[in-house]
Amino acid sequence: MTKWIEKYNGLSMLGVERTRDYRGYVVRVQGTEGDLPERWFTYAYDQEDRHTYWIGMTNSEDDAKAVLERMLSEGWLCEVYVSEHAGHCKEQAVLVKHTWYERKSERLRTLLCERHGHIFPEWEDMTIREYVNTYNGLEQDAPILGKRL
Ligand SMILES: [Zn+2]
Question: How far is the CA of 62 from the centre of ligand 1 (A)?
Answer without folding.
Answer: 28
